[in-house]
C-alpha cells in the first residue's frame, strides 16, 4: 500500500501537475494540502477520471485538505479538530482507507514570529497533539501525514542558521514536534534514513531547487502498528522541477499488507 502526501499549492492551478504525477506514480492513497479552493470548486470529476475517489475540506483562497484513494473506499471520520469552535480554517481531515486510519493535516505556518500567527500555530499544535494521543490509544494503524510546517532538526534545513527566528524552526515549534513524537509516533523518513539530507520543499526564489537549498517540512508520523509495516519511503523530488509546479515535492511511504 503506497501512501503519499503532497502540498499542491493550489489544486486547480496545479491540476495538470497533480494529474501527471498521479498517472506516473499511482499511489493508493494521497493526502493533499493547500487546495486553495472552496468546497464547490474542488476538481472532483478530473480526480475521478484519474481513477481516484476523494473527500475534501475546502476553503476559499487559503488552506484546504483532501484525501484521495485509488479504487478504495474512503470512510471519513473527522474534519477539523476539537478545542476551538471559532477556528474555521480548513486544516485537518481524517478517514479510514483499507484498514488504516489516515489523518491529513496542514499545520499553520506561524510567521511572523513572535505574534498572533505564531500563537495560533502553537495552539493548533496543542489541539492536534491532544487528538493524536487519542488516536494512538486506539491501537489501530494510524498515519498522520501532511505539511507540518516544522523543520525538526538542523539536518532538515539547508543552512539552518538562516532559519533560527523563523516560525518553522523556532525552539517552541521543534519542542512541540518532539513532544508529539514522544507520544509514540515514528517519523517514517528518519526511521529509514536517519542521517541523510532529505528535503521536501524548495522555495521559488534564488534557484533554491537547482541548488538543492531545501527544507524537510512534510512528514509521515506512524503509530506503532503502522510503523512495523513500513517498507520504504521517499520524495518524488523531480516533480518540483516540472513546469508550473508546487514548491513542495510529493513524499510517500509503502506499507506491507497486514
UniProtKB/TrEMBL annotation:
Residues 4-248 form the Endonuclease/exonuclease/phosphatase domain. Mg(2+) binds at residues 7, 34, 147, 149, 247-248. The keyword Magnesium applies. It holds the Pfam family Exo_endo_phos. It comes from the Bacteria. The keyword Magnesium applies. The record marks 248 as: Interaction with DNA substrate. One of its GO terms (biological process) is DNA repair. The active site is at 106, 147 (proton donor/acceptor), 248 (proton acceptor). Its cofactor is Mg(2+); Mn(2+). Probably binds two magnesium or manganese ions per subunit. The record marks 149 as: Transition state stabilizer. GO terms for molecular function: DNA binding; double-stranded DNA 3'-5' DNA exonuclease activity; endonuclease activity; metal ion binding. The record marks 218 as: Important for catalytic activity. Keywords: Hydrolase, Magnesium, Manganese, Metal-binding. Belongs to the DNA repair enzymes AP/ExoA family. This is Exodeoxyribonuclease-3. It comes from Pedobacter soli.
